[in-house]
């Protein structure tokens, strides 16, 4: 333990040295930071060194017991739900307080309070997107419609605050010391802000790019390059099915005028393509035990502290275990004694942009049909560290939503005065969904819980010990006419309004399909037989087909089979594209010795992107160079644009190698896909030769260099670099350089539940703890922890137990 403490102190010292070189605002007082009694030295501990037998917690009706297992996973036993959530807040804050607060301050647009004016534009953007506004609307929704849930959220906040009040300067998380600030009281609003933060993380749109390409390319070419329903689609909900409802009718207006603004600007940041999540459930008819098995692995940014925190929550009515988000109530992805559930992102367009025509420079009213509607001005006061005066930003709100860019913010952009309409801004109660899922007993309970869920839209997989498996695509989805929301719309035209919302009972779902499994991997949700317009720009085309083909072929399925599938490194994109690329390369006679060596490596490849393989690196570099070359004509398009995805690019290469778009207009020759492939191979050989000479081994893990990064990127010594693992974008094990499986869970629902889980980090948010990153080696190797439920009287493999006592 002493040696470990030395390493931690050294790590923190290196972190401070690095911090000194980056502009994060006013520096902390070094005397306080280096004080041996209060400074960062006091953070070189592990939580099992701080065990206390009893703690007083104000507000408890009865004592609460907390058992920690050998991995610091708490098992909380309470006699009622209010005590349970009060204890959950206290325990979570013990291990993840700084992370909880930092993420909610980011969601509120308050990072300038921590690091100074370097974050001012970021905070302004966050507020102008309306995250705080959405959380405030959500809080009012709870106050008016669900005071019982609000009472639980407030109990959680009370638990967090009692931990904050107990903190000495010595025990402050080290990030507070480095950045020189203290935690503020937790509130119910902060828990709601956390869910808005997740919504913002998981949603994107390409309205800007599609609007520009529509003008430049025309409808026909746009649809060819970006088909809404490509050749091979394996949707979340099985293709052949009857929809047992009468759909609401929506008619596309005969005449529509879209804004004709020149759009020479940069798009908003978008979620990384090819990174998503997987979940599935297999019926007992396909498993060796006869019990359903559920699997879930949401893919997010790889961060430390981990985005997830594992725990078990128990009352006399239920025991639930899994992964929660620090700051949220209950378990988000998990299981109890009767059911299990998990989530993947349901990529359906849920935010749109409307051009606003203001009456005059005051911006107090805007055109809507033949009338002028009143706008609302919201003042956003942004405090800045090191400055006495706060920055006040004026954000105009219309009935659509906030105007993100205007004369006061990035006025050089051409999309000034566009309002953002987003389901995030509408009152909702996602927290109740998870509270109800935690105690669900059957499929009916699962369906009832999802009726409270709005955003971010998710594919909820389900299994029960009654033998049911199910999938439901849940969110609040606008009722749209065909192509509505795909392009910028005119806010002055009432015909551009969302018509209504699709009733929840019409959201796509399936129960016990004949094929014996359900699955989702961010692909198209439904086939064209679904009677409502469905669109998103980022549907997945590889992971879903790989998962479904494997599940189709499996029989006598075991938990071990599911573990292997979650960690599957098969590179389907390469398996389809590489043979064609080698064919296009033609005779190898003209290749250099190095080129022949690389080609031999590629020809011998089994298409698994395992960490020690070299061929994945060669294919990845060759494909990316070919991709950019094939679409180089797009460089001439002014304004924002996107290029067709990998799947559509391969289809065009295969079916139309002489496609007109592949011909470079600036050359007298007529280029085909074959020419681009040859050129890209030569460039790959040159680049990889250089890389080898500078870095040596080009095996896949060494090349992609997976990094699990601290939430403050400048704190490099609190990160873990070059994790040795395989996978990649578009692969079931979607572990790229900075993204991957943020939580893996497998549950078999028999008479006795068997569960396994892992995530890339550790239970503690303290870099000085041995529980900060101890899960990473197992996660990188595809291993799991035993995640079975525990009883209150189990004492084996416990680090320590706390009893939280009522105190007045």
Automatic annotation (TrEMBL):
Statement: the UniProt record of this protein carries the keyword Transport: no
GO biological process, one term: antibiotic biosynthetic process
Claim: Hydrolase is one of the keywords in the record: yes
Family, similarity comment: Belongs to the peptidase S45 family.
Keywords of the record: Calcium, Hydrolase, Metal-binding, Zymogen
PANTHER family linked to this entry: ACYL-HOMOSERINE LACTONE ACYLASE QUIP (PTHR34218:SF4), PEPTIDASE S45 PENICILLIN AMIDASE (PTHR34218)
Catalytic residue list: 277
Residues where Ca(2+) binds: 349, 352
Cofactor: Ca(2+)
Name of protein: Penicillin amidase
């Amino acid at each position: 333990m002493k040696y470990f403490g030395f390493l931690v102190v050294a790590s923190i010292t290196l972190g401070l040295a690095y911090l000194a070189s980056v502009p994060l605002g006013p520096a902390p007082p070094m005397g306080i930071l280096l004080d041996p009694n209060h400074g960062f030295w006091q953070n070189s501990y592990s939580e099992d060194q701080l065990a206390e037998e009893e703690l007083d917690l104000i507000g408890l009706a009865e004592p609460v017991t907390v058992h920690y297992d050998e991995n610091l996973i708490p098992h909380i036993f309470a006699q009622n739900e209010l005590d349970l959530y009060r204890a959950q807040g206290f325990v979570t804050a013990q291990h993840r307080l700084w992370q909880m607060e930092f993420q909610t301050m980011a969601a509120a647009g308050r990072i300038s309070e921590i690091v100074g004016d370097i974050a001012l534009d970021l905070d302004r953007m966050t507020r102008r997107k309306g995250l705080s506004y959405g959380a405030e609307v959500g809080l009012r929704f709870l106050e008016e419609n669900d005071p019982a849930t609000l009472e639980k959220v407030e109990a959680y906040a009370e638990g967090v605050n009692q931990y904050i009040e107990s903190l000495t300067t010595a025990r402050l998380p080290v990030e507070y010391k480095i950045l020189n600030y203290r935690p503020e009281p937790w509130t119910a609003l902060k828990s709601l802000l956390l869910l808005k933060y997740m919504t913002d993380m998981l949603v994107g749109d390409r309205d800007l790019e599609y609007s520009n390409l529509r003008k430049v390319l025309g409808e026909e070419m746009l649809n060819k390059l970006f088909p809404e329903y490509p050749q091979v689609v394996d949707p979340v909900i099985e293709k052949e099915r009857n929809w047992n409802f009468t759909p609401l009718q929506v008619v596309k207006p005969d005449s529509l005028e879209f804004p004709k603004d020149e759009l020479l600007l940069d798009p908003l940041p978008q979620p990384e393509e090819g990174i998503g999540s997987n979940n599935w459930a297999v019926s007992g008819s396909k498993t060796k035990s006869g019990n359903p098995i559920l699997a879930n692995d949401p893919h997010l940014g790889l961060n430390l502290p981990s985005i997830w925190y594992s725990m078990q929550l128990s009352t006399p009515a239920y025991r639930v275990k899994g992964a929660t988000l620090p700051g949220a109530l209950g378990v988000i992805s998990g299981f109890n004694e009767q059911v299990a559930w998990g989530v993947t992102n349901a990529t359906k367009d849920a935010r749109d942009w409307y051009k606003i025509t203001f009456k005059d420079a005051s911006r107090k009213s805007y055109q809507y049909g033949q009338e002028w509607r009143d706008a609302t001005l919201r003042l956003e006061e942004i405090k800045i560290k090191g400055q006495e005066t706060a920055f006040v930003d004026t954000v105009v709100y219309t009935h659509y939503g906030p105007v993100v860019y205007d004369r006061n913010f990035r006025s050089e952009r051409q999309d000034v005065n566009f309002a953002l309409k987003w389901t995030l801004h509408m009152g909702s109660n996602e927290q109740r969904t998870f509270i109800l899922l935690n105690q669900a007993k059957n499929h009916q309970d699962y369906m009832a819980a999802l009726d409270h869920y709005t955003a971010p839209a998710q594919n909820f997989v389900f299994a029960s010990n009654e033998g049911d498996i199910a999938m439901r695509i849940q969110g609040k989805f606008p009722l749209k006419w065909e192509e509505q929301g795909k392009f910028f719309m005119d806010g002055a035209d009432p015909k551009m309004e969302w018509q209504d919302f699709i009733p929840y009972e019409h959201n796509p779902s399936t129960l016990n399909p004949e094929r014996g499994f359900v699955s989702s991997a961010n692909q198209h949700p439904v086939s064209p037989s679904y009677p409502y317009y469905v669109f998103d720009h980022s549907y997945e085309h590889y992971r879903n087909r790989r998962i479904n083909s494997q599940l189709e072929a499996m029989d006598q399925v075991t938990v071990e089979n599911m573990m292997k599938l979650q960690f599957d490194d098969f590179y389907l994109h390469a398996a389809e594209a590489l043979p064609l690329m080698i064919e296009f390369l033609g005779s190898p006679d003209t290749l250099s010795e190095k080129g022949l060596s690389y080609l031999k490596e590629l020809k011998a490849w089994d298409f698994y992107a395992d960490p020690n393989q070299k061929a994945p690196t060669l294919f990845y570099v060759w494909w990316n160079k070919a991709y950019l070359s094939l679409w180089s004509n797009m460089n001439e398009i002014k304004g924002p644009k996107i290029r067709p995805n990998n799947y559509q690019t391969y289809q065009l290469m295969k079916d139309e190698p002489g496609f007109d778009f592949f011909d470079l207009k600036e050359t007298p020759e007529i280029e085909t896909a074959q020419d681009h492939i040859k050129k890209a191979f030569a460039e790959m050989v040159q680049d990889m030769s250089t890389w080898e000479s500078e870095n040596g081994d080009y095996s896949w893990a060494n090349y992609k260099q997976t990094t699990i990064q601290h939430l403050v990127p400048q704190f490099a010594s609190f990160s873990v670099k070059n994790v040795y693992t395989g996978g990649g974008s578009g692969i079931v094990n979607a572990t790229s350089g900075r993204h991957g499986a943020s939580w893996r869970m497998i549950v078999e629902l028999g008479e006795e539940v068997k569960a396994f889980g892992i995530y890339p980090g550790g239970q503690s948010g303290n870099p000085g703890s041995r529980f900060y990153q101890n899960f990473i080696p197992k996660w990188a190797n595809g291993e799991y922890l035993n995640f079975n439920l525990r009883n209150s009287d189990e004492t084996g493999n416990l680090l320590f137990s706390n009893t939280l006592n009522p105190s007045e």
